[in-house]
Amino acid sequence: DLGGLFLVRGAETGYRSWLKPRGPYDGFLLSTANWLAPQLAAIAAGTRTGDLDRQVDAAVAGAFDLVPGYPTGNAFGNSAKLMDQVMAFGDGAARAPGPFSRDGRPFPRELVQRAVDLAAAEGLLTAKGYMKS
Hints:
The chain is mostly helical. The protein is built from six helices and two strands; from the N terminus they run E-H-E-H-H-H-H-H. Helix 1 links the parallel strand 1 and strand 2.
């Protein structure tokens, strides 16, 4: 017993197996949950598993693969910003303003497009995104 401590899981994989009652975690870190909210909600509720688990795991791993060595920020923040841009604007994410790196500059359009391509490859891309729904 951790005395009422609320544990959240971040950008690791295997979300379904780590949530209570199967695992020790109560929820998800915002950096990941912000861009995967519908998917993680479905996993937590047990309403969708299997392919969705695989898609989420692959998308999280792929998002980190987009940003190694990026000159500002960190891999957690940079990958989350890129992928949230995609979820916000769908297939038009590379044409929308932002996202911005820690130094206040926009991420390169080609990097945003790679994030769009990743979401498409994992079956997570929508045409509009939540900002245009």
